Amino acid sequence: MSYIFAANWKLFKNPTQARAFFAEFGVLSKNFFSGGSADQIVFFPSAICLEAAAQSLSSSSIQFGAQNVYCELQGAFTGENSAQVVKDIGAQYVLIGHSERRSLFAESDALLAKKVKTVQTLDLTVMLCIGESLEQRKNNETLKVLTAQLKADLSEADPNKKLVVAYEPIWAIGTGQVATLEQVAEAHQQIHAVLKEMGFNKVSVLYGGSVKADNAKALAAVAGVDGFLVGGASLEPATFWQICQAHI
Ligand code: PGA
Questions:
Q1: φ, ψ for residue 80 (rounded to 5)?
Q2: pLDDT digit string (tens) for 136-183?
Q3: Whose CA is nearest to atom 3 of ligand 1?
Q4: pLDDT computed for residue 30 by the predictor
Q5: DSSP string, 12-76
Q6: What is the pLDDT of residue 33?
Q7: What residues line ligand 1, using a CB cutoff of 6 Å?
Q8: Rounded Cα gap, residues 116 and 242, in angstroms
Q9: End-to-end CA distance of the chain
């Protein structure tokens, strides 16, 4: 399966900084696709930088998407973003259920299930984030939590539409504390098995949580890891480009 290297920029960078990043990253990665690589690179800038991404990436195979959308396409929902607008701008992906959305913005599994359905209806690729808290891991509940999140968040999803899952242990996000290779292998095996049982075939499962240039190669070699979702280490072109080469 081809690898996916995804960058989650969170609430960093303005459009000018985004354009400067893409100009520099374009130079670094220019032989990536012409070399016949089937791997994909996807950027998730903040909503206000999506237009800059669309313009900067229009002549490359690098893809981009939104970090969040609302479950309705239009209406009286002040402050929200629509998947339809994201699609009109030219994006291919939407990130759904990042742990910061779940914890800071109280997004429930029921809401996330609706968002997944809405995004899939437009034929955009859903990148669904799941992951356990430190307390859940300590209580040996990790596999149970991951299974429950998949079942709830994908309860309205269409197995024939595009889907990517990102496993992000909450305790590893932005902490520098990366999951061990054994923990990653166990979680990914479980996620692949549950997805298969639910009828979702050929879903790429990415790992996220303190992925850096110096641990990416070892993580990329773990069975069941089909790429990365990178936060902090995706903000600088040379660092993220190094991570994108972890699979070569
Ligand atoms: P991190 O973030 O790479 O900074 O740990 C990952 C994420 O939140 O997607």
A1: -90, 170
A2: 999 999 999 999 999 999 999 999 999 999 999 999 999 999 999 999
A3: 231
A4: 85
A5: ---HHHHHHHHHHHHHHTTTTTTTT---EEEEE--GGGHHHHHHHHTTSS-EEEES---SSSSSS
A6: 64
A7: 8, 168, 173-174, 208-211, 229-233
A8: 31
A9: 13
12 phi, psi to nearest 5 deg: -120, 155
How many angstroms separate the CA atoms of 153 and 144, rounded?
14
Radius of gyration of the chain (CA): 17
Q: Which of 62, 3, 61, 40 is nearest to 225 (CA)?
A: 3
Q: What is the mean pLDDT of residues 55-65?
A: 95
Q: How many CB atoms lie within 10 A of CB 131?
A: 27
Cβ pair 167, 131 in contact under 8 A: yes
And the tokens for 31? 């032989």
Point out which residues pair with 4 in neighbouring strands. 40, 227
Please pick, among 100, 107, 168, 188, the residue that the annotation labels catalytic.
168
Q: What is the tens place of the pLDDT at every residue in 93-137?
A: 999 999 999 999 999 999 999 999 999 999 999 999 999 999 999
Q: Which of 3, 1, 91, 15 is nearest to 46 (CA)?
A: 15
CA atoms within 13 A on the CB side of 115: 29
Active-site residue, 98 included: yes
For residue 229, CA distances in Å to 5, 22, 205 come to 6, 18, 10
Catalytic residue flag (residue 168)? yes
Please state at what angle helix 50-57 crosses helix 15-28, rounded to 10 degrees: 30
Model's pTM, two decimal places? Answer: 0.96
27 Cβ neighbours under 8 A, 6+ residues apart: none
